Amino acid sequence: MSPLATDVLVIGAGPAGAAAARAAAGRGLTVICVDRRAEIGVPVQCAEFVPMPLLRTVHETDSRVQDVEGMLTVLPSGLQHHSVFPGMMIDRARFDQGLAELAQAAGAQVKIRCQFLAWDGEVARLRCGTDEAFIVRPRLLIGADGPHSRVAKAVGLPHQQVVYTRQYTVPLLRPYADTDIFLSDAFPGGYGWLFPRGPVANLGLGADRRFEDNLKLPLEQLHQQMVERGIVGESVLGRTGGAIPVGGIRRMVHGNVVLAGDAAGLTHPITGAGIPAAVISGAGAGLAAADYLAGDEDALESYAEDMQDQFGPALARAVQRRKSLEAVWRQPAAQEDRVMRSSWIAFDEYFAA
Ligand SMILES: Cc1cc2nc3c(=O)[nH]c(=O)nc-3n(C[C@H](O)[C@H](O)[C@H](O)COP(=O)(O)OP(=O)(O)OC[C@H]3O[C@@H](n4cnc5c(N)ncnc54)[C@H](O)[C@@H]3O)c2cc1C
């Protein structure tokens, strides 16, 4: 059978892919957006916090669960630091589904149970449902397939460095308007978090596997501490986890292949926040695709430069802070508040030269 022709093929219908599909379809291109999942956004692999600048997208997707006012950072000594950090807790499955619906409304075809397998520079081979060899010939391919991007691998990029996470959803025993962050040598290469989500909370942690392979034990200890403080209940209502890229921006344009979101390494290497960058880069990639296919030869490189301008400095600082921390994990210095303050975004020291 001859390959199916389309202007743009988007791999992944997460925030980056759906935003890309929406933007490209909105400019009149034919767009196919595929995701290997059986249901968009499910299972949720996220702590579900987004900052205020994403308000419009949260409204558009009807995914707001509760507002967040600030961030409470708990240092190794137990000292607490409160900062104003407004944002929202979202229903991440609803957020992703809403974005995919907006892409469809703009004219994109969204296909689930459809896995990207290979790219030979001209055609993409996919497995869609029972169709073992669904072949698509796009004029442009967008890789928005997350931290372990197969598209990035197909264009020759090595695996990116990731932090692994584990998260429980637990009952929250009282209303709460802050995101709590726990900095400790118990979570080397990452941190612990308690994010309120109405009557429940997402309680999780991330760690670098080179320093801590067993995430279950520290998470159970963190859970127990929260139970003893009367903040959350004993039961575990849900479990999830996943990988977070922490290596910084990768090369985003490879001929007529463009990367966005986690696949492009746009997630913040210290906080692990990646939803805003995924939405922004996805939309940027979709618009750049339209300009490029309309004859603007520089459009894709302009997209990469724009992303570098928007995210590059913050990501470079975060990568550098991670590197400094790598020297101290499992050393006495990792127990010092001073060291942790210089490595977390809530403190002025983090932004010092
Ligand atoms: C535990 C955890 C907590 C987090 N908490 C937050 C948070 O609170 N706030 C925040 O901003 N960020 C958070 N992040 C990061 C955030 O989830 C990501 O940065 C964001 O999902 C990136 O969006 P994306 O569209 O690039 O990738 P993804 O959301 O990963 O979407 C990629 C999509 O591609 C699909 N896919 C993958 N491979 C293929 C293939 N071969 N073929 C077809 N489809 C494929 C996947 O099924 C997936 O749907 C968290 C991450 C984790 C793991």
TrEMBL record:
GO terms for molecular function: FAD binding; oxidoreductase activity, acting on the CH-CH group of donors, NAD or NADP as acceptor. Pfam families: FAD_binding_3, Lycopene_cycl. SUPFAM superfamilies: FAD/NAD(P)-binding domain. It comes from the Bacteria. Residues 6-158 form the FAD-binding domain. NCBIfam families: GG-red-SF. This is Geranylgeranyl reductase.
